Structures are given as C-alpha cells and as structure tokens.
Amino acid sequence: MRERTLLLGEQRGMVGVLTEPSAEVGAVDRPLVVLLNAGLLPRIGPYRLWVRLARQLAAEGFAVLRFDLSGIGDSEPRQDALGFEEAALDDIRQVLDQMARSRGVRRFVLMGLCSGADNSYLAALRDDRIVGIVLMDGYAYRTPGFYLRYFGRRLLRRRSWYSLGRLALEQVRARLPRVLGPAPMNPSVRPVPDYVRAFPPRAQVAAGLRSLAARGVHIYVIYTSGMDGHYNHRTQFLRAFRDVDFRGHLTLDYFAESDHTFTELRSQRALVEAVVAWTRRAFPAHIAVRSAEPQVRSG
Amino acid sequence: MTPSFFGPSARSLFGIYHPPVGRPARNRGVLLCAPLGQEAIRAHRALRQLAILLSRARYHVLRFDYYGCGDSAGDSSEGHTTQWLEDIATATAELKDCAGVNRVCWVGLRYGASLAVLAARGRRDLDSLVLWDPVVDGKAYLREVCAMHEQLLLEELGDRRRHRRATSPDDAEEILGFPLPRRLRDEIRQLDLLSIVDYPVRRVALVVSSTTPAYDRLRAHLSSLRLDMTYAHVPAEWNSDQVMNRSLVPMDLLQTIVASLAEAAA
C-alpha cells in the first residue's frame, strides 16, 4: 500500500490523497473507490474513518481516492456562485474526469455519509462511469411500519406525549413549502448546521434508483440509529421503495447500535468490515477483465 | 499551497506547505502543531485559516499531521507522545528545507501546544512559541475529554448509552471517536507544563480562548521564567462539533496570533 497527494480539479484547487494497493494485490481494471466529504468534515472522514477504510480497501486490491470538495477541508473555494449541491457534483465530475485522463480509470465506486451519500447518489445518476455507490445515512422515507415502531417504542415512556407532539410538528413542517425549512434530522441533538439537508420527493428518488438498477449499478445502503427520526428498521428502505426492482444489486444494512458518525470504535470496526466485504463481493477480481467491462460513454 | 508526504517512508507524515504571499518573504518558518483526535478535526478549518493568514504575513508555513493522525501513516491506535515529539522535529526539518530558512516559530494548539513545549527542549533554531489553549495538566485534560466523550455519546446514543459503564480517565480506551491506548494515556497523565522551566526561545505567547485557573497558573509560571512573555485572552469558541459544523473560525484569535509573531520578529 502506498499513498500520495494529488491536486485535483480544473483549477487544481482540491486536495486529495490516493491510496494504491501494492503490486501483489492490485487487480487490473478494478473500479477506483472515491470517498466523499461527510458534510463539512475534512476528507479523513468522521474520526479518520475514511483513512482506515481506504487502507483496508487497498489491502483488498482497490485504489481509493479521498479528497476535499471545494471550500471544505484543505481545498480552495470555488470562484463561481454554484449552490452546494451543484458545486459538489461539478467538483466530482472534474475529479473523475482527471482520474480517467491521468490513470485510465473507467469505473468508479462512490461512497459517502450524509451529504456524501446524497452526492454519491446524485453523481451516479449523471455519470455512467459510476458502477457502485455506498450510501450511509442517505435519503430516508418514513413508512407505516416506521410510525408503528416509532410510537410503539415510545408510548410507554414518560416523555411519550412530548415526542408525539414533536413528530407531529415535524410532519406539519415537512409538508409546508420550505417556509419553515425542512424537518431537522435529529432536532433534539444538534443545532441545524449551515448546510441544510433536504430529501427530494420519494417518487423522484424511486425513479432515480430504477435508472441505476437498470444500469446495473451496485448499491449498498446503510442506515444508523442516528437517523431514527426517519429510519428505524433494516428493511424500511425496501418498504419505502417497493415500486423499485433493484435487480439483485441492492444490499441493505442497519447499524442499530451506531450513531450517525460512528463515534464508538466498535461501530467503526463494524462499518469498515461491512463496506470492505461488500466492495470485495460486488467487484471481485475475476470480473475485472476488459471483455466484461460495461461500455463507457464517450464525449 | 503544496500538499506532500515527507519523512521516513515507513512513517511518512502528511503536510501542507504555504509559501509566503508577497515580498520580501520573511526569513522565518512557522510550524503549526495540531491538537489530537476530534479536537484536530474541530480545529482543522481554523488552523488552515491561520496558515493562510501567516502566509499573507509573508511567513513560510507548514501544517502537518502527526504519525497515526490525519492523512499521515499509521493507525490511530499507534500514536504516542514520544513519536509525536520526533514528528515535530521531522516537520521542522521539512519546513526549513522547503523554505530555505534557519529559524522557526512553533504555534501549538491544545495538546499540540504541550507537545511543542516538550519538543523545544535543547533546540537552538526556535525563535518563539505560541501556546494556544495549551493542555497544562494532563490529568485534568483526560477528565475534560472523558466528560466531553460521555456527553457526546449520551446525546448521540441516548438510551442505548445509559446502560453502559461510564468512561473513566483512569482506564478509558477511546475518546471522542479515537483510540486512547494505554501508553498514550499514561504519557498524557504525566504532563505538567508547570514543571517545565526549559524554554530555549526568545519569546513565548500564551493565547487563550477562555480564562481558567490553569491558564492563570501557567501565565504566572511563564512570567517567572525571565522570558519575553505575552498573554492574550481572546474569547472564542472552536472546540465543539456544533461550531465545527457551522464552519466558523475564531478570526480575532487568529489575528492575535499573527500579530504576536510579527511583534516577536520586530
């Protein structure tokens, strides 16, 4: 395993670190894994988790790039006025283009937590070179089962009526057109950061997931209990997207004992182990031959 | 801004060199010594901004990650004080090499400030030290970060946390998302800045974002050492996940540090 620094993007203002496998384990044409910023956290990830993940994936034969989007971590801010999401997607496109040009990479797997999950999904919709995504605490949609579990667990608690009122208030807010802003992810814990996260309409995401499944994109969806205001069961994702045929490309996990940023070391170990195992399964060395490659869109 | 890995290949360190902006460049380098663990992540934006301000003040600046920290080699469980003192020396050599300067200043934050004090012993190339919110007493620091850890887990995990044993400064194995191996815990516990009298520098600046009895004691201690010592209290918040997520930097405090170095050089 070896690591080197890169200056990325058309202005070379984004800082990245490329972790490459040693020659013995490095398989030709395996996709490049790209780790995205989680919110405003620098590229090392929450608690340096992306560094550990990158190095363990490299031990499995994957090259891994972690980098800072413009204005985050060590990267220079952009000079244009693009919004957070459009700027992030353009940054990702520039980085992928650069890795394709300079290293001949033809396939990418994007991984991210929170806004990093959202950016992974949105980038995959736009870019056929992205053949896998790992979405950690990505968009979540409540189902009838969610409400049953949510209220079932709370009705016997002393503060149940407070919680009920809070959720009801959230529901009202969520239905109001942005006047009050989107429902906060976990309103009792943290103040709302500058970056405000909004989930697109479920039907829109369902259509997006259908298009990714049709392209054969491998999708690994992970939720933690840090999303328990929106997600509280391992299979809720499947229930929320019953109208999507994932064609066997979906893997789902629920880290019930972990918070949103995997603060405890045991949660970190479990996450890294799970993501490495999924990546190894989804992109085994033996399919990484040129004849099995998908067509790369030109232009 | 030039990112690179430097140092011995088995223990390579990540750093970013900020060259002076404008001429004439000062013939001084400034090395930024970061805090540990989650405090380093919380301080990242502020230290980057400080590096930019110092480079605009025509200093050569290097910020870097210790072994087992940030992008540098090593697992998070492998770092310890002895290694990090060596890393400060390695980074100083790298800064002098990049910049072509012979003399340097060190700016340390929290445990990074304490490391800077320990690493200064016996050096002859140091002009000044800036100690920003230094860890004065290792035992008190462990108690403080353990309390922060407990609070964070209670907030994040709620009921799931209540059934587990509370983190104790005596045997904590993880703090705020990072391992706390026994060796490091013991090293931190032994830290007592008030027992250090060897400051081979012309000038020491103590810059604090809050007033505490420990900082008062350190200020009195430094004053008693016949050093050119300055003290500044600049109220600021930087050490919380909330502030980190709001992407704020303590600009007044950073300006105070830049001014303090400029005064020292005058």
Q: Domain count of chain A, please report it.
A: 2
Which structural class do the helices and strands of chain B define?
A: alpha/beta
CATH architectural type of the largest domain in chain A: 3-Layer(aba) Sandwich
Lateral arrangement of strands in the main beta sheet of chain B: 1-2-4-3-5-6-9-10
**Overall form of chain B:** globular
Name the assembly state.
heterodimer
Based on the model shown, name its key terms.
heterodimer; A: 299 residues; alpha/beta; Rossmann fold; 2 domains; 8 strands; disordered C terminus; B: 266 residues; eight-stranded mixed sheet; two-stranded antiparallel sheet; 10 strands
Walk me through this protein's architecture.
The complex is a heterodimer of chains A (299) and B (266). With 299 residues, chain A is an alpha/beta fold. Chain A folds into two domains: 2-141 and 201-292, 3-Layer(aba) Sandwich (Rossmann fold), CATH 3.40.50.1820; 142-198, no CATH class. Helix content of chain A is 36%, strand content 16%. An eight-stranded mixed β-sheet of chain A has the order 1-2-4-3-5-6-7-8, with helices on both faces. In chain A, strand 7, helix 7 and strand 8 form a beta-alpha-beta unit. In chain A, helix 1 packs parallel to helix 8 (265-282). The longest helix of chain A has 20 residues, at 84-103. Chain B has 266 residues and is of the alpha/beta class. Chain B contains nine helices and ten strands. Chain B has helices spanning 37-56, 81-99, 111-120, 138-157, 159-162, 182-190, 213-223, 241-245, 251-265; strands spanning 2-6, 13-18, 28-33, 60-64, 103-109, 126-132, 174-175, 178-179, 203-208, 228-233. Classes of the chains: A alpha/beta (299), B alpha/beta (266). The A-B interface holds A 3-5, 7, 15, 17, 39-44, 46-48, 51-52, 73-74, 76, 189-191, 193-195, 225-226, 257, 259-265, 268 and B 1, 3-5, 12, 14, 16, 37-38, 41, 44-45, 48, 69-71, 73, 75-76, 152-153, 155-157, 160, 173-174, 176-179, 241-242, 244-247.
